[in-house]
Amino acid sequence: MSEYDECTDSLVDRTVLTELQAELGGDHAIISAFVRNYVALLPWRVSRLHRALEHLDMEDAMDAVLSLKTSSHMVGAICMNRLATELEISIRLLPNADHLDELSAQVSEIDRFVGGTISELETPLL
């Protein structure tokens, strides 16, 4: 599954975390802390997107979506990364901030996958 496929299979690519752990000398504690931080901040990042759209704040919307996209990529949350990438493109294509509210459906789509992403990241590897 590529990061551009629909979010129908796994929401997280575990190999991303495995590779990051190898790059960090195999330290599982660092990866665990990284995942915990991502999980703790994910709902806040998505609510920040909602607020930016509600307030028609283009700068905050872009900052929030880039934060979501980058952190999702680093943790292997492929669905979140894809949806954030699509939202970033949509924001960039808007003529001005007055049209941000038109993207609320895309942020709602992101909302749909927050719980599943957290669940997959909190599930230990066997």
From TrEMBL:
<dbReference type="InterPro" id="IPR036641">
    <property type="entry name" value="HPT_dom_sf"/>
</dbReference>
<protein>
    <submittedName>
        <fullName>HPt (Histidine-containing phosphotransfer) domain-containing protein</fullName>
    </submittedName>
</protein>
